[in-house]
Amino acid sequence: MKIIFVLIPLSLILLAVAIWGFFWMVRNDQFDDLESPAWRILTDDDPPRPDDQTRNEP
Fold it and tell me: What b-and-e string marks burial along 11-25, b requiring 16 or more CB atoms within 10 Å of the CB?
């Protein structure tokens, strides 16, 4: 029963930290654009490396 006196304040502290972190992320524009990073990887075209071009030659 004594552990509940530790767990309740600890859970309230963790809840306060989570709420603070959420509002900090919203204030710093972390949730503005959620779809562009997912599409960016599909359209990312890396230029071929010079050593890759020499391997394809017979």
Answer: eeeeeeeeeeeeeee
Number of domains in the chain: 1
Tokens found for residue 7: 């767990």
Q: Going residue by residue through the chain (58 aa), what tens digit of pLDDT does each one get?
A: 899 999 999 999 999 999 999 999 999 988 787 778 778 777 777 766 766 555 555 5
Whether 23 is covered by a domain: the verdict is yes
Find how far residue 8's CA is from the centre of its chain: 29
Quote the tokens at residue 28: 């710093």
What pTM, to 2 d.p., does this model score?
0.56
Contact (CB, 8 A) for 50 and 57: no
Residue 52 lies in a domain: no
